[in-house]
């Protein structure tokens, strides 16, 4: 059964990054060790909070297909400006992130997401050749783009 729900994905950071943030907080707290218990606890709480805000911010990027547009991070592109969507597996995604990449492309890149979708931009006024979107479910995103393009046409 194909869902008619619009596509919405948040590119959250992996769980082990949160564990690294807590461990980094303990490392920062060790710096305050000579100053006593209260500075240690304050440094621990403050540093874990700062690391948490940074991770939450970095992992808050979203990819959505809504109201005739693809919204990827800060970019909002009408579906009429988009062409073919190509699903990239892990090795192809890595290739398009590195040696195959075009510097003019729009890239919503998250290194911890191994798969991606490459969407051609067909608008002659736009110098962007394609969009590279890190996504955990590129097949679903491609299908959602196809469904939305049919509805928009």
Structure description:
- With 153 residues, the chain is an alpha+beta fold.
- It has 2 domains: 9-58; 63-152, no CATH class.
- The chain contains 4 helices and 8 strands.
- It has helices spanning 15-31, 37-58, 90-97, 138-152, and strands at 8-10, 62-66, 69-72, 75-78, 82-88, 106-108, 116-121, 130-134.
- The strands form 2 sheets. The chain has a 4-stranded antiparallel sheet with strand order 1-2-3-4, covered by helices on one side.
- Helix 1 runs antiparallel to helix 2 (37-58).
- The two termini are 23 Å apart.
- The model has no long low-confidence stretch (mean pLDDT 92).
The best one-word shape is elongated
Separate helix tally: 4
Sheet having the most strands? 4 strands, antiparallel
In whole angstroms, how far apart are the ends? 23 Å
Structural class: alpha+beta
Low-pLDDT parts are none
Mean pLDDT: 92
- Structure summary, number of beta strands: 8
Number of domains: 2
Helix content: 40-55%
* H and E string: EHHEEEEHEEEH
Beta-strand content: 15-25%
Physical arrangement of strands within the biggest beta sheet? 1-2-3-4
Rg (C-alpha, Å): 20 Å
């Amino acid at each position: 059964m194909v869902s008619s729900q619009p596509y919405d994905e948040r590119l959250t950071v992996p769980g082990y990054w949160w564990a690294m943030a807590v461990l980094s907080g303990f490392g920062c707290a060790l710096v305050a060790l000579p100053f006593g218990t209260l500075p240690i606890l304050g440094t621990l709480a403050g540093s874990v909070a700062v690391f948490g805000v940074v991770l939450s911010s970095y992992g808050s990027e979203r990819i959505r297909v809504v109201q005739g547009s693809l919204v990827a991070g800060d970019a909002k592109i009408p579906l009429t400006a988009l062409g073919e969507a190509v699903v990239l597996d892990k090795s192809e995604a890595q290739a398009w992130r590195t040696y195959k990449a075009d510097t003019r492309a729009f890239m919503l890149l998250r290194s911890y997401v191994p798969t991606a979708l490459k969407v051609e931009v067909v608008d002659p006024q736009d110098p962007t050749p394609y969009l590279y979107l890190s996504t955990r479910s590129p097949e679903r995103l491609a299908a959602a783009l196809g469904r939305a393009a049919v509805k928009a046409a």
